[in-house]
Amino acid sequence: MIDEEPTRSFLIRSDNGGRDWEHWSTIAYDPAGIICFGEPALGRTANGTLVCMMRTHHQPRRRHQNLWFAYSTNDGESWSRPEPTKLWGYPADFTLLKDGRMLCTYGHRREPWGVWGCISEDGLTWDPANEFVIREGGIAPKDKVPHLYWHIGYPTTIQLQDGRLLTVDHRWTDEEPFVQYVVGVLWELP
Q: Which end is more exposed in the chain, N or C (fewer Cβ atoms within 10 Å of the end residue's Cβ)?
């Protein structure tokens, strides 16, 4: 067992344009010390609900699990009980689409490697039947970068005026020297 407090996801706010910040609320925390909630992605649905998708790992092995989700109907003052989704990957990012649906993008750091997306009609329900691949690959050879070969993703997405989407993330080069770089993918909704 790791002798430290598990990671919690929390919200901070500023009332003076970012000069000072204060803790506003805890989004997710496991007082039993088993689940660590990190790298929260925040978004706001078409009806104004704040949503948060979180990367998790479970002690004592720090095993990664599916993304967990919570929401707030009072601008983040309090949050729903965090629940696991059936989406696997990390970390996540949200984009409110022009048609009111919510897009979640995330790195998929296991076979098949790449960056994935999932569409939710309301931003509150996440069904793996709505998952799709935005781009494949991006890992380095395990024997060349043994401790970081899998470190891909951290996507962020914007929707352009014409409706297409631009997702930017990082990946590894395909040839030596193996270095990470930022790549953008221009795509359309499936």
A: N
